[in-house]
Amino acid sequence: MPSDHQTQQIPTQKRNATLTLWQVVLFGLAYMTPIIVLGTFGVLATVTQGATAGAYLAALIAMLFTAYSYGQMAKAFPVAGSAYTYVRRAIDDRLGFLAGWAILLDYLFLPMVIWLIGAAYLYSAFPAIPQWLWLLGFIVLTTGINYVGLKLASRINSLLMLVQVLVLIAFISLSIHYVVGDPTQPLWDLRPFIGTSTTLLPTLMAGAAVACYSFLGFDAVTTLTEETRSPRQTLPRAILAITVVGGLIFIGVAYFVQLATPDFHFDNPDAAAYQIARNIGGDLFVSIFLIGLIVGQFASGIAAQASGARLIYAMGRDGVLSKRWLGTLSRFGTPTGGLVLSGLIALLALAMDVLSAASFINFGAFIAFTLVNLSVISHYFGREHRRQGLDVIRYLIAPAIGAGAIIWLLFSLDNRAIVLGAIWLAVGLAWLLWLTQGFRLPPPELEVEEA
């Protein structure tokens, strides 16, 4: 991938289309960071009262419809982009701006959640050191690496990704071994899917609304459009494959870990997997697990902050945000303003827990997902009049179900997250009114491709 400096100099440079289907799928899975299922396990187990696998299953079903819609929009507009691009081209520039504003919520706050999870686990292992100090360590170190540039961050990420995959495999294996060694615990049990709650559906949907955090990034492969062979055919298949494979990994891990931990009451739900790792593997494994999880969070934080800072830079450069503070690059070709802003926002984690922070991020994702589903209806069913036979299912019923499922998940979020998310959207709408002088001017066009 070209550096920011190269992209800025040659914005129309033609990229080599060399990526195959499975290369794109592997990229998407790596971006999703599968080990996150362990990082949020305690929160999910508490919310669902022991039905973590059921929550991931419900989330997977809902996400499949949205993944289908992303695939259809990638087929219609085979350019590097995101929900912002699809909504702007399929529905309206102003709705596209709001979709971009919702995406900005994810990009700005995702590093905060990643670092918060890592800090919670380190605090569980070393309670003598305050959690806020671990959080500051993540922010400073990650920001420093990203300031030096993408090349260093990429090299570090490749190594860290391998470590976390190996730790995830070890955790699953030990969970299975632990369950098999208990004669009172069958290997097949419905409890990880239904839990102990007397109100199963609301509980599952509340859990699924949080579980969707693990799926964030499944759509990141749309940025690889220009590097992918036959993108109109490859990207829709890749997006669905990433969602299915990632969902099955999450369900499988959640199922066996829940079997190994039928009691979902933890001393610290934000760092429950640390307690579970000690139970199933002893002191040695809990140390290995902690290293793997922190490595995974560190790698994910590097990527999330780098992506967010570059989106902020693009918005500053295009006049959506302050060009003076956010639209310039450092001598390393990195967006200093975006990196600093990301670090400052992460300080909000000092007053939040993982559940509220992850729910807040999901609010922005759910808004974008809903608009992408509606974009399929607007573009294919509306503009192109694809209304015959199976097209009614493809371009009306399926995306409508997807939009409905995402809206249901949105209103199943933590109440504080809904309020904060609504405030964020209101600020975005007010900013849009200012930029367009009351909708008299078109909104500024954001070149997401260059971010």
TrEMBL record:
The keyword Membrane applies. InterPro entries: AA-permease/SLC12A_dom (IPR004841), APC_superfamily (IPR050367). Residues 25-408 form the Amino acid permease/ SLC12A domain. GO terms for cellular component: membrane. It is found in: Membrane. It is a multi-pass membrane protein. It holds the Pfam family AA_permease. Keywords: Membrane, Transmembrane, Transmembrane helix. The lineage of its organism: Bacteria, Pseudomonadati, Pseudomonadota, Gammaproteobacteria, Oceanospirillales. GO terms for biological process: transmembrane transport. The chain crosses the membrane at residues 21-47, 53-71, 98-123, 129-148, 160-180, 200-218, 238-257, 284-304, 325-351, 357-380, 392-411, 417-435. This is Amino acid permease. The keyword Membrane applies.
